[in-house]
Amino acid sequence: MTTTLRPATPDDAEHLAALAAITFPLACPPGSDPAAVAEHIRTQLSPERFAAWAASADHTLLLAEAADPGEDLDGAPDGGSTPPDGTTAGHRLVGYALLVRAVPADQDIVAVVGDEPTVELSKIYVHPGSQGTGVASDLLRAALDAAPGLVPDRAVWLGTNEENARAQAFYRKHGFEVAGRRTYVVGGESHDDVVMVRPLG
Q1: Contact predicate 109/157, CB 8 Å
Q2: Phi and psi dihedrals of 4, rounded to 5?
Q3: Cα-to-chain-centroid distance, residue 157
Q4: Quick one: pLDDT at residue 87?
Q5: pLDDT score for 76
Q6: DSSP readout, 15-76?
Q7: Count H helices, E strands: the chain?
Q8: What is the pTM of this model?
Q9: pLDDT exceeds 50 at position 80
Q10: Closest Cα partner for 127 from 11, 25, 46?
């Protein structure tokens, strides 16, 4: 499987939202309220959200596509149809990453990274069928390479559920360290996150 990375465009929004609807529930801790997860996906991971992120100068949205002749971007047989704008024939979406440039509003985050503009690795997800193939590492490296273009000379931070040991191990492998905690709300349901930071250098 050959995978390529590229910046997303607003034309990719529908496919990114479809992938997010698959991958986000898999990252939620056991016992999460399915209705709360569904509400989060509906309101926070909609096609409109992805289109806005792709067009924003304060965001970097990267996607990974796998060469897979005979399938469209969602992985369904294309039947010879013309692929949607922003894709190429024989490729399917397998992952994405989102960086956000902002001044933290959450005081738990301010305590870790300060109150100046910084870069958050807000999202990085890979289709379950492509996990273990190196796509996640490729996306993370590309995101870290892109981060200085949003805010130079600042550490990158992220939040991940405190029960998600697999994700934390992955981030540690790429230089992140636990530096604090925060509360993250999913569809009105509060969860405990660790905040991880990748120091400069």
Answers
A1: yes
A2: -125, 150
A3: 13
A4: 45
A5: 40
A6: HHHHHHHHHHHHHSPTT--HHHHHHHHHHHS-HHHHHHHHH-TTEEEEEEEEE-TTB-TTSS
A7: 6, 7
A8: 0.87
A9: no
A10: 25
